[in-house]
Fold this sequence. Notes:
The chain has a 4-stranded antiparallel β-sheet with strand order 2-3-1-4. Helix content is about 30%, strand content about 20%. A hairpin with a 6-residue loop joins strand 2 and strand 3. The protein is an alpha+beta fold. It is elongated and about 55 Å long. The two termini are about 20 Å apart.
Amino acid sequence: MSIDDKDKKIIEELKKDSRTSIRDISKITGIRPSTVHQRINKLKTSNTIEKFTIKLNNKLIGENFIVFMFVSTEEDLDEALFKDKHIKEVFGITGEYDLLFKLKFKNVEEFNDFVLEFRKKTGVKKTITMVGTITLKEEI
């Protein structure tokens, strides 16, 4: 499916606030409400829009300790590992390490408990971690 300028305008408004009404998106973009509705449905059906979600305040929900972990593996990791509540994003990467994890914790103690257990997992060869000190931009 190709995305044209109208789709891009609609997507930009939904990225700002996925609760924006079709009527408001129509007013902002200058696209008729029925067209906005049809295009959102088309974007959902084609999986261009995978889901509508929310952005939480990390500090208020107790996930203000953010860690990036590079992981080198010896074999494929167990899929169950990725279900851990602290693991927010995982990317396959090139270079010395195989994976990049974005993790969120309440504090350094919670992170320490996690990392000690994580390093024992089958397939994990080595890790290196970096702690985020300030969030300058974060999107979902």
